[in-house]
Specification:
By secondary structure, the chain is of the alpha+beta class. Helix content is 43%, strand content 19%. The chain is built from 16 helices and 16 strands. The strands form 5 sheets. Strands 8, 9, 10, 12 and 14 form a 5-stranded antiparallel sheet that branches. The protein has a 4-stranded antiparallel sheet with strand order 13-11-15-16, with no helix packed on it. α3 runs antiparallel to α16 and α7 packs across α8. The longest helix is centred in the middle third of the chain and has 30 residues. The relative contact order is 0.10. It binds iron/sulfur cluster (2 copies). One iron/sulfur cluster binds next to α13 and α14.
Length: 472
């Protein structure tokens, strides 16, 4: 019973968020500036990812933006390939594959994405936080500045920081909008008189305001209170997932380092709290895995630096599975991981097949429902067909359809087959065959779709004819 009470007390930290006081007020976190090999590696990865994010809207392939997510018009460009509403099935399949990938990736590597690639973490820790350290100093100086009265120095530092924060938020919102409406349209909004693009300017201001609010005030709350991925960790992680964990077997019993300690009868943790001081979500990783941990690696670096100083091996806090810490078990590919991997391989294979066989034009030909054949006055037999063509290219085209097999005539009724990019055209056409060519109820016919003289697709269908009565 007593043990249970002690266990409950130990788990008490799980009853509240590290960033909320007992009275329910926001506790502002002043994380100490991290330094170390992981922080350097994350800085490098962030520079690469941010460079790509900023450069991509400026990159054009065949005169079209490399990446475009025009949700309002349902037009997308992925690495120079256009996708429209007719590719919805590919979009759904890609989304399902992505979700399975995230689930698998999280089951194996935990929240590694949050620490290394999530835009929220990258902008917060690698852009806004660095600027804050530069202007206001490290955690202690920030605390002092916050507590200080409003002197000229404080007003200057705070306003300077917030002007820069808003400027960067405005820049991010421009980049963000360029992915949605295209860089060309964004440049029009910026360069034309404001009265011509009121809605665009309104969107830019709204996005800037949201980004400014998130990075200057909301911060880690976005990860702990809002992000659905963070909330899913409880069901995605298990004892075999690799997470950032404190090796309590090696670290406990912890105590302050005293002169002459030889580590033979104590743990390696010297209770210096540096791993807590650097944590941007304000948690103590020594309590175990917590929802708030965004896997930023700051505590690994902090602890490794301490271990170097006290001449103990690095890795008291490290990437490891709980099973590995518990009994030194090596990484194991569990049945759950196998199941996710199999599903992922199947999904990706289907998606790859569909993408590889995706053509520039979708052409569908169906005999007009409810119609049989018609006998023409000149003795020819005719059938009426419905035609549906989708132009999936960037360019407008004027197509033509011709009868390839057997010999006969093909007449398009009404509209011509001119299509703009991503446009769908529907038309009717008639095939006329001499009576001698129609010897059975279903005669196979082959139709060619041409772009100028270039045959782009062959379609096979059937032609209905009268059934010859057998002479008695
Ligand atoms: S940094 Fe390492 S040694 Fe210091 S308190 Fe954290 S786990 Fe213990
Ligand atoms: S516990 Fe460590 S890895 Fe997790 S958020 Fe805090 S500092 Fe980052």
């Amino acid at each position: 019973m007593e043990t249970e009470i002690i266990e409950d007390e130990k788990q008490e930290f799980r009853d509240h968020l590290a960033t909320v006081t007992k009275e329910g007020k926001r506790k502002w976190i002043f994380p100490k500036k991290p330094s170390g090999r992981f922080y350097n590696a994350r800085t490098f990865v962030s520079i690469v990812l941010l460079s790509f994010l900023i450069a991509a809207p400026f990159i054009k392939v065949n005169n079209h933006q490399l990446l475009l997510f025009d949700f309002p018009n349902r037009e997308f460009i992925l690495f120079g390939v256009p996708f429209g509403p007719h590719d919805f099935h590919l979009f759904v399949l890609a989304m399902i594959s992505l979700i399975v990938f995230i689930v698998l990736f999280t089951a194996i590597f935990g929240r590694i994405f949050c620490g290394w690639a999530c835009p929220q973490t990258i902008f917060m820790e690698m852009v806004f936080r660095k600027i804050e350290y530069w202007i206001e100093g490290d955690a202690n100086e920030q605390r002092k500045l916050k507590a200080a009265s409003w002197t000229v120095n404080k007003i200057f530092k705070k306003s300077f920081k917030h002007i820069i924060f808003f400027g960067i938020s405005f820049f991010i919102s421009n980049i963000f909008l360029a992915y949605i409406i295209s860089m060309d349209k964004l440049i029009e909004i910026i360069t034309d008189p404001p009265s011509q693009h009121l809605s665009g300017l309104l969107a830019l201001t709204a996005f800037s305001g949201v980004f400014y609010f998130v990075f200057s005030y909301f911060r880690e709350q976005a990860c702990t209170l809002v992000c659905p991925y963070g909330r899913l960790q409880g069901v995605l992680l298990d004892q075999d997932s690799i997470v950032i964990a404190y090796d309590y077997k090696r670290g406990e019993p912890r105590s302050k380092l005293k002169k002459g300690d030889d580590f033979s009868n104590r743990g390696d943790c010297i209770d210096c709290y540096l791993c807590v001081d650097v944590c941007p979500t304000g948690i103590d990783i020594r309590n175990g895995i917590q929802l708030e941990c965004v896997n930023c690696t700051a505590c690994i670096d902090a602890c490794d630096n301490v271990m170097d100083k006290i001449k103990r091996p690095r890795g008291l806090i490290r990437y490891a599975s709980l099973r590995n810490i518990e009994n030194k078990a090596k990484f194991k590919f569990t049945p759950r991981m196998m199941l996710y991997s199999t599903i992922l391989v199947i999904l990706v294979s289907v998606l790859t097949y569909l993408m590889a066989n995706r053509t520039d034009f979708n052409v569908n030909i169906l005999r007009t429902p409810g119609m049989l054949f018609q006998q023409q006055p000149d003795g020819k037999i005719s059938n009426l067909y419905d035609l549906n063509i989708v132009n999936k290219t960037f360019n407008p085209v004027k197509l033509d359809i011709r009868l390839l097999e057997p010999k006969g005539e093909l007449k398009i009724i009404g509209s011509d087959l001119s299509l703009n990019s991503q446009q769908i055209v529907e038309a009717k056409f008639m095939i006329l065959l001499p009576k001698e060519s129609v010897r059975k109820m279903n005669t196979p016919v082959e139709i060619g779709v041409y772009d100028g003289d270039n045959l782009i697709k062959k379609i096979k269908t059937t032609f209905l004819g009268p059934v010859e009565k057998v002479q008695q």
